Amino acid sequence: MARKILIIGGVAGGASAAARLRRLSEDDQIIMFERGEHVSFSNCSLPYFLGGHISSSDKLVLMSPEKFLKQYNIIARTKNEVTAINRQDKIITIKDLNSGELYTESYDKLILSPGAKPIVPPIPGIEKINLFTVRNVTDINNLHNAIQDKSKKIAVIGGGFIGVEVAENLKEAGYDVSLIEAMPQILRTFDYDMVQILHKEILDHGINLLVNDKVAGFDTNTVLLGSGKKVAADIVIMAIGVSPETHLAKEAGLEIGKTGAIATSPMCQTNDPDIYAIGDAIEVDGKLFDDKWKLALAWPAQIQARGVADHINGQDFLNPGYIGSSCIKVFNLNAASTGLTEGFIQATKMDIDYETVIITPNDKVSLMPDNSTMFFKLIFDKNTRKVLGAQAIGKGNADKRIDVIATAIKFGATIDDLTEIELCYAPPYSSAKDVVNMAGYVAANIADKSFSQVSPNEVRNLVESGAYIVDVRETPELEKGKIIGSYHIPLSELRSRYQEIPKDRPVYLHCRSGQRSYNGALALQNLGYSNVVNVAGGFLGLSYYEYFNDKTLNRNPILTAYNFN
Amino acid sequence: MARKILIIGGVAGGASAAARLRRLSEDDQIIMFERGEHVSFSNCSLPYFLGGHISSSDKLVLMSPEKFLKQYNIIARTKNEVTAINRQDKIITIKDLNSGELYTESYDKLILSPGAKPIVPPIPGIEKINLFTVRNVTDINNLHNAIQDKSKKIAVIGGGFIGVEVAENLKEAGYDVSLIEAMPQILRTFDYDMVQILHKEILDHGINLLVNDKVAGFDTNTVLLGSGKKVAADIVIMAIGVSPETHLAKEAGLEIGKTGAIATSPMCQTNDPDIYAIGDAIEVDGKLFDDKWKLALAWPAQIQARGVADHINGQDFLNPGYIGSSCIKVFNLNAASTGLTEGFIQATKMDIDYETVIITPNDKVSLMPDNSTMFFKLIFDKNTRKVLGAQAIGKGNADKRIDVIATAIKFGATIDDLTEIELCYAPPYSSAKDVVNMAGYVAANIADKSFSQVSPNEVRNLVESGAYIVDVRETPELEKGKIIGSYHIPLSELRSRYQEIPKDRPVYLHCRSGQRSYNGALALQNLGYSNVVNVAGGFLGLSYYEYFNDKTLNRNPILTAYNFN
């Protein structure tokens, strides 16, 4: 029996649900309502139009209402805003924004896919600035038109995905760009230690990056920061976050969850079983923790869009728990993350006895001319040995390593499993023992207490407290900088000179990447040293970790120089 | 108690075992014997020296005997060939190739890591040519010295990894290169349908690729082929395959397996428990089939090297079954494969009821300027729905997709699991629904009989037998070529014109990539057509499939033109 299925919101989730509904039934009437000017545009690609990667904003629109009708017999009405849901009579009211007229449509099933809107707080003086947000094609066209003059100074407020991508693209397009973040770091899908690599990349490319500094107010063409700093800005782009579009749902008496997003059943039904909700507007289950969260990502929206279409057509669907995998290009670096971060575990006071590993191997065989360091952090449960999350940053294939970890997490992998994943290898792509395998080995060694390590973020305290740090790099390498106060015994002399190292106190070893110092640490242990600790990530990891904060916090350096090679 | 551990073979496996042995014990005496001039060189990187990616052959050598001694207290003796193993007295005899002197060393534990040697069959006239093989740094230096004159014509015999990598690198370096393969295809880690993409790439880059043509003999500067063709060759590189180095093991009475490689216990012990064997010289278990195989890859060698060092030091080790993951760069294409191929299943007459899926999606959001087609083939068990293998080829990140599949296979993933892997997404990297997710959906649809498909390799028969093929691309796309005899109804007109399509015979639908025709196929099914079949990979996949064989077999084309975009 033919049904009438209405969809509120015609972007990612809504459009995908409509297409899937049509594949499952030729008979159903499917109407999609979109308040904005376009359906089915690539919202994730909006920043790349600013950077010139996408030549015309028209290209951002993947499907027109005409195409939807012709190819899929789906009615898509743009500039049509749904203003009310009458659940009793199963009727919605729509305002045609072209004519201003109100009209109604009845439904058998209703799908809410309204998305989330940029948060714009009532900051004092906000009326004095030229303010933009980035949500749809209209927004990006408005912004693009406002910055035809390349001498415009632009301030992007908020260092999340959209803020960073917009800032990067505008900088690449030649603008004077400031990126302002209230927290001590951008991109909280990365931990504080890892994100320093991205902080440096952003600074190096000439963006005026300001972290740990909240916007206190605005004046004409000026952002006023809590620190007292003033940032000149002809254009201000507000990207501090998004908030689920819940007003229609609320007014219709649909249940809102504790996160402030729409609550749904495991089948994505609201508390009205004829009304489904999907995408950025709903809250979802965590897969790695026992709670709800908001996850404004495209992958969950796609899963849910397909799932509700299946469910409406009598097929099974269970909205799964999500781990949250993401990636971002930041100038020359690829950065990816999956699962839990240390920061998230701490912020949510999760009861997990976790441990972390940082390694800095080459992304491929070091002989290949385009090899580069892959910064990799693994987070695992010390008791169950289960992998909880990972972050990778480098010029090389970071997303590959994180996709492997995301896959492993799906199957409940332990750190030991990571050593056994048979990844493909040829010199242009990886090493015989890939980054992921290596992280597994290091994690297993730590879990087995074969050796111990400290994170780059603990080294400053060690130096300041006068810890015994041995630099096992070979002598020529010292020219590239060293830890102030460290003792130098090259690995090649360690066995003949180890007696110089005291046995009655902790000994911290480091080399360039942590690899040779690991060998040195085990040698010392086998030679009777009971308290030997490896500096994870080595001088390389430490250089990144110290650099940004040395620059921005004007603190005393603990390294005589940085070395980023 | 300190032991004396001898290692025969100082390249990948041997050198890794030595380093791990040292990490586990400072006391053991560790001596490594290498017949060649170098230990610890990157054998996988040898071809890249020919292409100029690696500036000097010295760089191929990762560790010198001096470094092994100084950094790890490991004795490495190059140009020292072990000539006999006396198991009774646990003594080996070594010939110092510098002095010609014989000497002996006793052992507590012995590790065989002799590798595999290039096969050079006694082809008539072989003495008349300038013959090279590629196994070690000395080989590659000899070859490099012989081709200083860039006008040299080079024939590479054998289209396996080494043959293809050497041919590619020599072509990139500017030589006239022929690549000769006796079988109908190169690189049997890829199926015949997929490998056509690589055949085309090799042809397009000016290599004289000859497949299905066996070397019958040689004459001066000439390779004589079975077809009667003659290939001019100042230099001939023999790369038809490798054979495990088993002579020492055989002479010592150690067991050789049915594959001709050394047989070992699950702990990599030979039938003499004090003698271990690892790497290319041994046979291993398949993980996806119940038999032994030879797998000359670096990853297994690394696993075994570490494993035997652990086992010698009282730790657990079980040499796992292997799935065989690999990748190769072929000019501008990245190609990767894991698990079973259709060809391997057929050749080994494996009793599996398998099905395949071919998809040709974009590797990333199609708006991004460097997007490209990712050719992806998935092989799965129709009954258990388990993933058996996959192949990916494209300009984009093929190795990433295959690493994800390799990880999934490790955990026994089904095709349904593939749809649920939460991969990271941003426009520069992938699509919201990644290639792997999409392959899972298509496979599940096929397994559930939601729709059916044919492979590109079945289309020629369809055309020749007058099957009813509907091209659902939009009209402007027809300019890029079409299937001869196909009927054209654009997807946008399908619902108004479907009555033109007969209901009483099978209907084959295709578009550019297989995506729109899938939607069209479901529409027809829902409109009452009971026998609708999608052409997997679409016109794009078909173009590659037909191109190479049309060119080389002089057959009648079934396409009016090819379209590779």
In short:
With 565 residues, chain A is an alpha/beta fold. Chains A and B meet through helix 1, helix 3, helix 8, strand 21 and strand 22 of A and helix 1, helix 3, helix 8, strand 21 and strand 22 of B.
Describe the structure.
- Two copies of one chain form a homodimer.
- By secondary structure, chain A is of the alpha/beta class.
- Chain A folds into four domains: 4-116 and 243-313, 3-Layer(bba) Sandwich (FAD/NAD(P)-binding domain); 130-240, 3-Layer(bba) Sandwich (FAD/NAD(P)-binding domain), CATH 3.50.50; 332-448, FAD/NAD-linked reductase, C-terminal dimerisation domain (Enolase-like, domain 1), CATH 3.30.390.30; 453-553, Rhodanese-like domain (Oxidized Rhodanese, domain 1), CATH 3.40.250.10.
- Chain A is 29% helix and 24% strand.
- Chain A has 16 helices and 30 strands.
- A five-stranded parallel sheet of chain A has the order 3-2-1-7-18. In chain A, strands 9-16-10-11-12 form a five-stranded parallel sheet, covered by helices on one side.
- The longest helix of chain A is centred in the C-terminal third of the chain and has 16 residues, at 538-553.
- The first copy, chain A, starts with a strand and ends in a 12-residue tail after the last helix.
- In chain A, 52% of the residues are buried.
- The mean pLDDT of chain A is 96.
- At the A-B interface, α1, α3, α8, β21 and β22 of A face α1, α3, α8, β21 and β22 of B.
